[in-house]
Amino acid sequence: MDTAIAPRGCPATLHVPLPSGEQAAHQARQAAARLLAQEADACPDEVADDLVLIVSELVGNAVLHADAPYALTLSLERGRAGIAVSDGAADLSGSHRDALRKEPGGRGLKIVRALGADLFVSPGGRGKQVIAVLIW
Q1: pLDDT tens digit string along 52-88?
Q2: Which of 12, 17, 48, 58 has the highest count of CB atoms within 10 angstroms of its CB?
């Protein structure tokens, strides 16, 4: 994994290419937790926990509903964070390829919003980014 963490400063930024399987959310959570530990003075512990959950939900949604390649970018400064998860699916319609699946689910973005994050979707060259912004 080619993880890059910018030197301490404002904002601290992390960029991690993610694998295309089940390990993507796990690796994203670990990388986010490392950055949050390194920049512990930038946000309270309860906010750090929320940020790790938001990362997990966004990456899980990308793996479940979109194509690879996946990547996580997290920018953190005192009082705010931006989380961007990129994927290889250019479809911005919101229709999911697994829309008829029978398993429980469909709450990921509701959880992200309930934690207070604003959500945006931005088209990219070969896919899109789902961006969450959290201010505390």
Answers
A1: 999 999 999 999 999 999 999 999 999 999 999 999 9
A2: 58
